[in-house]
Amino acid sequence: MIESGPPRASVHGPQAPSPPTRRLLRRIAATVAAKLALLIVLYLLFFSPSHRPHIDDAAVDRRLLPTR
Questions:
Q1: pTM for this prediction
Q2: Which of 10, 17, 23, 41 to pair with 55, CA 20 to 30 A apart?
Q3: Cβ(17)–Cβ(25) under 8 Å?
């Protein structure tokens, strides 16, 4: 009986990924890298320490303990 379908993996070890699998892995890696780059840019633009307000003890005292 002859089986049709994808070839089975050899007993001698793993085979190299097929070209469509390599393309898919490359696309996934590129997407992850692009998302990571976008997150870094957003952090630098909106959440970096240079964009945080300066809060000192005197300002906190003025807000929380108003003069009587």
A1: 0.53
A2: 41
A3: yes
